[in-house]
Write a structure and sequence with these properties.
This protein has 19 helices and 42 strands. With 819 residues, it is an alpha+beta fold. The protein has a 10-stranded antiparallel β-sheet, with helices on one face. Strands 6, 7, 8, 13, 17 and 18 form a 6-stranded antiparallel β-sheet that branches. β9 (94-99) and β10 form a beta hairpin. This is Glycosyltransferase 36. It comes from Halothermothrix orenii (strain H 168 / OCM 544 / DSM 9562). Residues 11-293 form the Glycosyl hydrolase 94 supersandwich domain.
């Protein structure tokens, strides 16, 4: 069943049924201020850091599921309703939610009163706009009251939900005209506050939650709205809120517009403080004046749309398949950008409290955005490198506000260092900026270094941490955080312990080995570009040694092993009763060229097709674990078919897509692509449940009770890797150090496609024709009418950072004939 439709011209997903299988959300904000907003106005807001500067509250795992948000209530003659359906849930005569790029519009109508609420965050301001238009579609005069509602969080979201003995006595607000100031903590920190305002005179307000809702009421029946009378309450401790009451008279056919602004102010310590509670309101009022009319709001919205149009114009596809085009041109890139902004910190599945910016996560996220925001990708690489230790290990996560690591010294996730090489390579290939390798960035201990020194430390971290078979030590875990193989017991009767000490933890990872032979050559090329040939030679020798180790000790009869555990037992082998084959090493080992000439790579991918493929995507392993195995760690704690224990972990699926293109099997690659791409799942929303416009991290596998049901949408590495798989490898428009490679691997039935690619300051209009109906192979390429040698359009690297890399609009016509 469908709950809406794609409006490709407007770049919106339009929802016409409020009761979606799960709240379908959008992200508002692009730089520092962010808001999560569901299709029925649930969600919350924060500034920079979803934990430390949370502006409004939200309750996870609640009943009903999507409780709390940016609500409006309409009261008339003893009746009340919500124009966003929730929270009152009174039946609407009309409902529609349009989720666009950085904005949402929710329209509701009941008894000839219609409302349209536009929600968005301006590009360059730390606030969100709610413009509510209300119209009388009837033939008689209507007198109504409009109530607004937000609930303020007391900044630190974790402290807010735990430290009640303190927090219930700290809340402070102030009301001045139509503006409600939330100034909790001004005494302690004196550098920030938030406000909620409307560009109209009000007939009343409330700032105390209990006074507005009632102690025993819910969001659906606040006592102030039920009575139709504001309480004019001033919060003193307890739970501060912001609510306005407006009395509105509408003539037949009349429409009125009201602009509500929820804003955040971070004051400079040198500011002079007003005598009114210690907060400086001048900046707030200046912000309010920037958006206090419809024309100003319209201009800000147009600026936002232009901002996203420019970001998404770096890669444009015409394939003849609407679902593919909308994924590539709009929704996949949009999700990549949102995920880059927030890493894994704040979604409807991540509370914004326990996780910040991930080292592994963000380096992978770069792959999907470096063509859109190269300057921000560069900045992120430097931030990530600063969290790295001198031995190459890293903090696994850091808080975006403080840039401080979340974990103890050294994360023990031994795959982390290699991702920095991959992220840096992606940046250099896209921009041509080789100078980033000379960027000065110290290690975590303060030792001065260049980015190249960090990459060398990353490479050496693998070289210096090998196990008995010459394979990389896994540490606490590799990419699969739940595969914890350094669990041991000195006595069978004792409980298991865990170690990540390299002298004790001898568990080895074939996945990291596959990553090493795939990502390692990128480091070798960088070395050669900057004249470090001796290091390059040593690195290449280490890569060759790793290839030998994998081919000798890292494979089973028909596929690559996953690992060796603490005791030296194989994981991911036909000899195991469960977990006989894993997806990850099949992808990375083939991507790294292992087993290509011998035919073993083909055998491994055939085994993936036979053992891991389902109608909804590739499961992570087969068969799943039916019981808990302490020596395997968390992976076997999940029921069969869920998450890492045999779920369709979508993040790893594109690794197989890419591996299939290495073998030239475009039919298989695109078949796998379609199975998890959300636009192709719109018709099965009752099964899939998540948004049909963005990827989910996990889909329940073939052994799960609810096969095909997704969880954890939006913030997932699935977004970047699927963008890479479809654009770089299936369509084959791939940045390389030396220029732009054209190397499609498509379904044989395709006759061709057209791509516009913005690359190093120029636009390449690429026409690919496939008259011979082959999957892979380029017969010849013409650039501006001239045949070039091979399939690489050569463009030299730059020895300095490129500024305004997207400004040059010089165009080149590229004609490609496959065959």
């Amino acid at each position: 069943m469908k709950y809406g439709y794609f409006d490709d011209r407007a770049r919106e997903y339009v929802i016409n049924n409020p009761e979606t299988p799960y709240p379908w959300i959008n992200y508002l904000g692009s730089k520092n201020y962010f808001c999560l907003l569901s299709n029925t106005a649930g969600g919350y807001s924060f500034y920079k850091d979803a934990r430390l500067l949370r502006i409004t509250r939200y309750r996870y795992n609640n009943v009903p599921i999507d409780a709390g948000g940016k609500y409006y209530y309409i009261y008339e003659d003893g009746e009340y309703w919500s124009p966003t359906w929730a929270p009152v849930k009174a039946k609407l005569d009309y409902y529609q939610c349009q989720h666009g790029l950085g904005y949402s519009v929710i329209t509701g109508e009941r008894k000839n009163i219609s409302t349209e609420i536009l929600y968005f965050v301006p590009v360059d301001d730390n606030c969100e706009i709610h413009r509510l238009k209300i119209k009388n579609n009837g033939s008689s005069v209507r007198k109504i009251k409009l109530f607004s509602f937000v609930e303020f969080c007391l900044w630190d979201a974790y402290d807010d939900m735990t430290n009640f003995q303190r927090n219930l006595s700290t809340g402070e607000v102030e009301v001045e005209g139509s503006t409600i100031f939330h100034k909790t903590e001004y005494r302690e920190r004196r550098n920030h506050f938030s406000f909620f305002t409307v560009n109209s005179n009000i007939s009343g307000f409330d700032t105390d939650r209990e006074s507005f809702i009632g102690l025993y009421n819910g969001f659906h029946e606040p006592q102030v709205v039920v009575s139709g009378r504001p309480g004019n309450s001033i919060a003193s401790g307890w739970s501060p809120i912001g609510s306005h009451c407006l009395e509105i008279v509408l003539q037949p056919g009349e429409e009125q517009s009201y602009i509500f602004i929820l804003g955040f102010m971070e004051n400079n310590p040198d500011n002079k403080w007003s005598s009114c509670g210690g907060i400086n309101k001048d900046k707030a009022y200046s912000m309010i004046r920037r958006y206090n009319s419809d024309i100003k709001v319209d201009n800000a919205l147009q600026q936002l749309k232009s901002y996203w149009d420019d970001l998404l114009s770096g890669f444009y596809l015409e394939s003849g398949d609407d679902r593919l085009d909308r994924m590539v041109n709009t929704w996949n890139q949009y999700q990549c950008m949102v995920t880059f902004n927030l890493a894994r910190s704040a979604s409807y599945f991540e509370s914004g409290i326990s996780r910040g910016i991930g080292f592994r996560d963000s380096n992978q996220d770069l792959l999907g955005v470096v063509h859109m925001v190269p300057e921000r990708a560069r900045e992120r690489l430097i931030d990530l490198a600063r969290t790295q230790f001198e031995d190459g290990s890293t903090y696994h996560q850091y808080q975006p506000l403080t840039k401080e690591g979340n974990n103890e010294i050294g994360s023990g996730f031994n795959d982390d260092p290699l991702w920095l090489i991959l992220g840096t390579a992606a940046y250099i290939k896209e921009t041509g900026d080789i100078s980033i390798l000379n960027e000065e960035v110290s290690f975590n201990n303060g030792k001065e270094a260049t980015l190249f020194d960090h990459l060398l430390a990353s490479f050496n971290h693998v070289v210096l941490n090998k196990g008995p078979h010459g394979l990389p030590l896994i540490g606490r875990a590799d990419w699969n955080d739940c595969l914890n193989l350094n669990c041991f017991s000195t006595d069978p009767g004792e409980s298991f312990q865990t170690t990540t000490n390299k002298d004790d933890g001898q568990a080895e990872s074939v996945l990291i080995a596959g990553m090493f032979v795939t990502i390692g050559p990128e480091f070798v090329k960088m070395c050669r570009f900057i004249g470090k040939d001796e290091i390059a030679d040593r690195a290449q020798s280490e890569i060759e040694d790793m290839k030998k180790a994998v081919m000798e000790h890292g494979r089973d009869k028909n596929w690559f092993l996953r690992a060796y555990d603490y005791y030296g037992n194989k994981v991911g082998s036909i000899d195991n009763n469960e977990g006989q084959i894993y997806i990850e090493p099949q992808g990375f080992c083939v991507m790294g060229g292992l087993g290509i000439e011998s035919g073993f790579a083909r055998k491994a991918l055939d085994s993936v097709k036979e053992r891991l493929d389902t109608e909804y995507g590739l499961v992570l392993l087969d068969p799943p674990y039916k019981q808990y195995y302490p020596e395997l760690g968390e992976i076997s704690s999940y029921p069969p078919g869920y998450k890492e224990n045999g779920g369709i972990f979508c993040h790893a699926n594109p690794w197989i897509m890419i591996a299939e293109t290495v073998l030239g099997r475009g039919n298989n690659a695109f078949e796998y692509y379609k199975k998890i791409a959300p636009a192709y799942l719109e018709e099965i929303s009752d099964i899939h449940r998540m948004e049909p416009y963005v990827y989910a991290q996990m889909i329940a596998g073939k052994d799960a009770v609810n096969h095909g049901e997704a969880k954890n949408s939006w913030l997932t590495g699935t977004a970047a890797w699927n963008y890479v798989a479809i654009t770089h490898y299936i369509l084959g428009i791939r940045p390389e150090y030396e220029g732009l490679k054209i190397d499609p691997c498509i379904p044989e039935e395709w006759s061709g496609f057209y791509v516009e690619k913005r690359f190093r300051g120029k636009v390449y209009k690429i026409h690919v024709n496939n008259p011979a109906k082959v999957s892979k192979g380029v017969k010849h390429i013409k650039v501006d009418g001239e045949i070039i040698e091979g399939n690489l359009i050569r463009i030299p690297l730059e020895n300095q950072a490129r500024e305004n890399v997207n400004d040059n609009t010089t165009q080149h016509i590229v004609e490609v004939i496959m065959g």
